Amino acid sequence: MPGHAHVVGAGPAGWAAARQLARAGWSVDLHAGEAHHPYNRVEVSKSLLAGTATAADHGLGAVPDGVTLHLGDRIVVTRGHLTRAATGEELSGPIILATGAIPRTVPSLADAHVLRTADDASRLRETLGGGGRGVDVVGAGVLGMEAAGSLTDAGQRVRVHDVAPEIMSRMLPDGAAAWLRGVHERRGVDFALGAEPQLDGDAVTVAAIGIRPDTELAEQLGLEVADGVVVDELGRTSRTGIYAAGDCAALRVGDCLHRDEDLASARASGIRGATGALVDAGETEAPDAHAPAPARRWSVQAGLRVTTVGEVVGTGTEPGAGAEHIVVVSEAEEFESVVVRDGLVIGAVAVAKRPNPRGIAAAVGHPWDR
After folding, report:
1. Phi/psi at 11 (nearest 5 deg)?
2. pLDDT bracket for residue 296 (50, 70, 90)
3. What is the reported pTM?
4. C-alpha dihedral (86, 88, 90, 96), degrees to nearest 10
């Protein structure tokens, strides 16, 4: 007999989990904390911020048969159990936590705008109004640079601050990052890097200094938490019948914990948690273990798509020990490079109007002979 599950959180991970369970014939209550129909949150720093689209324009699709969507539904812990705050109804059966992440902040940026939800983007647009005040973006990572690009498109004067000496240090090697920064500079973005931010008191401030897993419910339930809700290869937490997926989860691999913060990983994590519930219900077999595909990350900013595949950065902003970053193409609106170690391509970077224009990503895993 098909089962029933609750999924707490309706971002990409929660949506993927609910859809996977529905395809297996289960009924699912999908509890969304926001009042919007589930949407693609990567657009918060792009079209939603620029005001060229709404959350509805980026909806994740029609609600699958068998899934009941509860919008604006706050879930709390009562006497050790998850319950709906509005009704007191206790959630029973398998539960998948997909509570996502929360923007990091510091006391000096307590009043700054953050970008995590569609409503965050709307509030920032309302604050900026017709423009003219200028915007200080604190943080030159993926989110900060996407926001800088969108705000520039909207006619705002933007300065990006970061204590790091270069942008996108967790995603790009120095050479690729410097090239991308040049693109933004030609579009009018100013940079203040390598020092503590000195903010303009008349400007609007946006804090983009990273996210942290939202583990509040997990902690109240007594689950194991360490930089996220700790899960195994099937999304199982330390408590039977409870699974976790997406930005809130940390996958244990051997003695290490692994947590990705990208759309593809969130979706895969949601499917993994749903599969865990199905396996534990005896409705399917655990999938065979296999070597993971090379990590793939992407960002859209300044009218360009930034794609990385495999290992492109090490402990700093340069490739890891023994690796060489080789620039293959460097033109006004196109950049491609590879990271090579011991004659083998271990990573690739492609930046252009269309993804991977010359197929450089396909070189990952192959000998470098150019």
Report:
1. -80, -165
2. confident
3. 0.91
4. 20
**Tokens standing for 231?**
């899960």
Q: What count of other Cβ atoms lies within 10 Å of the Cβ of residue 129? A: 9
CB atoms within 10 A of CB 113: 21
Residue 357 has pLDDT above 80, yes or no: no
Instruction: Give the pLDDT band (50/70/90) at residue 291.
Output: low
Residues 6 or more apart whose CB falls under 8 angstroms from that of 210 comprise: 103, 104, 139, 141
Sign of the alpha-carbon torsion through 9, 13, 18, 21 = negative
Give the residue ranges of DSSP H helices in 222-361.
Answer: 263-280
The residues, any chain, with a CB within 8 Å of residue 174's CB and separated by 6 or more, are 166, 317, 318, 325
Provide the β-strand partners of residue 258.
Answer: 251
Q: Kindly report which listed range (67-71, 259-263, 292-296) carries the lowest average pLDDT score.
A: 292-296
Q: How far apart are CA 354 and CA 164, in angstroms?
A: 28
Return all residues near 110 (Cβ < 8 A) that are at least 6 apart: none
The half-sphere exposure of 259 on its side-chain side, counting CA atoms within 13 A, is: 21
Percent of all residues in the chain with a pLDDT value above 70, rounded to a whole number: 95
Amino acid at 75: I
Mean per-residue pLDDT of the chain: 92
Question: What are the helix and strand counts (H, E) for the chain?
Answer: 7, 21
Q: Contacts by 65-69 with C-beta closer than 8 Å and gap 24+?
A: 65/22, 66/21, 66/22, 66/25, 66/26, 66/27, 66/28, 67/18, 67/19, 67/22, 67/27, 67/28, 67/29, 67/30, 68/27, 68/28, 68/29, 68/30, 69/10, 69/30, 69/32, 69/37, 69/38
Alpha-carbon span 245 to 327, nearest angstrom: 36
Give me the residue label for tokens 């904390």: 33
pLDDT greater than 60 at residue 316:
no
User: Pairing relation of β-strands 158-162 and 190-193?
Assistant: parallel
Cβ contact 244:67 at 8 Å: no
DSSP state of 207: E
Task: Determine the average pLDDT of the residues in 325-340.
Answer: 93
Which residues are registered as beta bridge partners of 231? 251
